[in-house]
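Supplementary material to the annual report.
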Amino acid sequence: MKAVVLHGGGPELDRFHQTILAELASSGWEAQGFVLRDLRIARCTGCFNCWTRTPGVCVIADEGRTVAERVARSGLVIYLSPVTFGGYSSNLKVAVDRLIPNILPFFTRINNEVHHQLRYDLQPLFLTIGFTEQPDTEGTKLFRKLTARNALNFHSSRQHSAIMSPTADSATIQAELRAFLQKGGGIQ
Amino acid sequence: MTSSKSALLLVGSPRGMNSSSRRLGEYLLEGLTKGGYTAEKLMLYPLIDREQEKAGLLESFAKADIIILSFPLYVDCLPSGVIKTLELLAEEQENHQSDWSQKKLVAISNSGFPEAQQSETALAICREFAQETGITWVGGLPVGMGGAINGKALVEAGGMLRNVVKALDLVVTSLNAGSGFPEESLRLTTKALFPAWLYVFFGNMSFKQLGKKNGLSKGDLFHRPFAE
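Predicted assembly:
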């Protein structure tokens, strides 16, 4: 089973990224991580070509395509990010915006709300880990809410958002990941 | 007599001048101009990725009394370039310990979904930015059915957007009067003008038509290039 980790933080979070990759490998996942600040990923231009001209593929030929391909093939998707005004960092969001080719333009209704249809059959497990020194604020509540909304739009089978300090022990993130994976529910 | 009040519109759409975000933001900006504000408009794309233009952004922001941030909803929140802008501004505030309490921020988030409420999280992020930087948060207006605007001037877009225009007029009046965000404007933009199933039907049809223009069949649009 494939897993992908999108690391949208600075060097201070690298050890968490490494811990997650190691934990995933030891749990039998074929995991690939992307340190997004080191990648050449242009911003989405809102051209709609990935929906109506080159379906499923962004017209920009850079590492944004590589990330999107990996996400499309992964049963587990993990985001790491500093909590940025209650949302994702701009580094993470550049890559997330370039995942739009992975869904269809066509609408459907979920819980009486309009969303885009899935392009692929995978409904991945989705875990976000937000880093902040202030764990219990409006910002962290918003981060969790954003994760839930994204999970809905990506038709995730199960989602969770964990908040931790950037100075936390690496064992903390290991425990969060294990707890999420052990909760069951599986990939659909 | 030169006005001492200044309004700055930040357009956060990658589509720039052809964007619905620009049209919505400009409507507010023009209203403030009529209320005596001097106006400036900046397109965040591609400005935010050009080192030589960032200084200009910070200078314009420093002068502004009211900031209008208008952007499209991208994956339930702000596009990456807008987040980058907020990060830059927050860093500026922190580095200089600036007192921005006299600045006011109003945000508009537009999406292609019929439910304007889908922009709630994005607008809450803007509010959080205001709180963290000490800016006075006026309010955020969610606008749905962005396909109906599609970059056109609001008056050209016609009757479907009458509630959006009414809502913007209320916001303009409140801003010019220095009063709070009009709750009625939220009621107007979140009110469904026609059933969601009808929007879904016409929306899906329009994507098929766009694909057809590009020589693609309906089936082609379901292509799965990364399937294993």
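Chain A is about 35% helix and 25% strand.
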